[in-house]
Every structure is written in C-alpha cells, then in structure tokens.
Amino acid sequence: ADAIISLRDVSQTYRVKKRGSFAGTSALRAVRNVTFDIVKGDSFAVVGESGCGKSTLMRLLSRLERPSGGSVLCEGRDIAGLSGAELLGFRRKLQLVLQDPFNSLPPRTGIGAMLEAPLRTHGWRDPRKIREKVRAVMDDVGLPVSLYDDLPLGLSAGQRQRVNVARAMVLDPEILLMDETLSALDQTEQFKLLALFDKLQRAHGLTYIYISHDLAMVRKACNRIAVMYLGEVVELADNDRLFFDPGHPYTRALLSAMPSLEARRYRPEDCLMEGEPPSPIDLPIGCAFRSRCPQAFGPCLDRPPLLSVRGARDLASCHLVPGPGATLAGAA
Ligand code: SF4
Ligand code: MG
C-alpha cells in the first residue's frame, strides 16, 4: 500500500530544568522510536492518556516541531527539510483541525472572512473566485451560506466546529489532522460531525489522523489505531483486532474503562490499572508499563519488550505476546 505519511524511528526529547536545581537539565523523552505508516484513505487514530506523547506526535506530524531523532515522511519525503514553496505546499496538503470550538475562532471576524484568509495566504487574489470557493466549502461542510457575514458569537458548538473544518477544507487538503476535534461536543453533534467527515472523506479522498483519548469515537471513526504509552507505540492494529483481540495489557485496560459492550469482554482483575504513568524524565528500566501492569512478570523488570507481529500487519510490544521479537522464556 502507498503510505502518505510514514514515521521512521521518530523520537522527541526535550531538555527540561532539573527539579530543585538552578543548573542542569534532564532529558524528557516525550516520543520514543515511533514507526508506522498511514496509508492514503486511512482514518488513523493515535490514542492514549494525557501525557503519553500524542500532543508531541501531533506537532511532529504537522511540522510545528522537528524530531530530535528519526524522520517524518510525507509521500516519501522527509518534511524536516522542507522550506519556502515546498513547506507551504505541505501545509496546504496537511491541515490541522483543533479541539476547542469556543476559543479557536477569532470573535470579531466574520465567518466568510475567516475562511478567505487561508486562501489569501496561499496566493489567491481574485475576490470573486475567493468568495465562490468559500461559499462552496461552506456548503460542503453544511454551513448555511447566509452565515457568510455573521460573527461566530451566535453559532452553536457544532457550527463552530464546522467552521474549523471549513477553514481546513478551503485549501483542498489531502490529510486532516484532528486534535481532539470532537471532544468538546455532545454525542448528537459528534455523530453528525462523524457523518460529515465520512462524506468529505469519500468526496475528496481524504486521509484522517485523529489524536484522541476517546476510544468510543475511535471505534466508530477509525480503521487503524496506534496506542501510545509513555511516548511509545505499544500496540498498532486494525479496528476489529484492537477492540476484539487486543494484544497489550495497556490496551485491555483502556478498553475495560469503556462504557460499552466491548468492555465486558475483559475481566476487571485482568485490566486493573492503578496510579499514574511514571515520569517521562525517569523512565523505568524494562517495560515502561510494568508499574501499572496486572500481568507483569520477571522479564518485564529489566528487559524492554520488542514489538511482536500479530496476524498479517498488527503489532504489540509485550513479553506475553508471542512472535518475532517476543521473549516468552520465564512466562509461567
Ligand atoms: Fe505487562 Fe510485562 Fe507485557 Fe509490559 S511486558 S505489558 S509489564 S506483561
Ligand atoms: Mg497531551
């Protein structure tokens, strides 16, 4: 399959001031050795608790940051090296849709003007063509064109989120990167937005990347899912496998917290997860999940598990998962 985005051994380390010290820094390893492909037409999700590195990954994918190690490729080209017209081209191709429909829109700018702005940035000059394009996009995302000159003040949360989507769509992107895009919406609005995303995807051949903590939404919207824990991808799987046959104890713990049928497939005692993840400044030796894992055993203490292959193309990194890279010696 042709990857539109590929991550190759991507890491991001920040220098942070040492606690209780005026001099000296520690390394905060926010993202560690992440490798995956996003195929054109995918609805790809990156899930995990807050602090797992998914926000950093979002910034790396959109080139708001460059990685400290490894590379992010778009159609085979390392995006770290892009500048000038090529960078502008990448920014058009991959558009960000942010979370908060109440704070992300400038309050004193009309809806139409808001959607015209990115076109001007990208070199559009003809006012008539600009207006035409904006009207077409408003129509495409289900915003009445009569809202063209309105301020965002009177809009519902769902309409505001549609404005955000329109702002991204106006540049005819190929990839939409959704950072908790639906989190602030109620169930009904979420459902409507997901139906819209589905329609837009089919009409424009879009690829979606969802950064989310909401597994119920991901179950509905995404075909492929990367689960992150402490900066690493611990499981990478297609939707059905992830929800019905997860390989990693952390994935099972996340699923057991879902208020749905899937959750009842797992015995709570197998999914218990207590406390907070350790600090990404003081990473544990061995498996990063061991301090919270109900199934931790000998090898987990001193050997980090490798990603093991499950089925045709899924991966999980746990000593209990057999397969290339797995180490079952010592398992009871
Ligand atoms: Fe749990 Fe060990 Fe697997 Fe880590 S390697 S998830 S500690 S069983
Ligand atoms: Mg975060």
Automatic annotation (TrEMBL):
Looking at the keywords, is Zinc-finger present? no
UniProt-annotated location(s): Cell inner membrane
> Domain ABC transporter spans what residues?
5-255
**Which Gene Ontology molecular function entries are recorded, alphabetically?**
ATP binding
The protein's topology relative to the membrane is:
Peripheral membrane protein
Recite the UniProt keywords alphabetically: ATP-binding, Nucleotide-binding, Transport
Q: Which domain of life is it from?
A: Bacteria
Q: Which family does it belong to?
A: Belongs to the ABC transporter superfamily.
The protein's name is: ABC transporter ATP-binding protein
**Organism in which the protein naturally occurs:** Methylorubrum zatmanii
Top-down, what is the taxonomic lineage of the species of origin? Bacteria, Pseudomonadati, Pseudomonadota, Alphaproteobacteria, Hyphomicrobiales
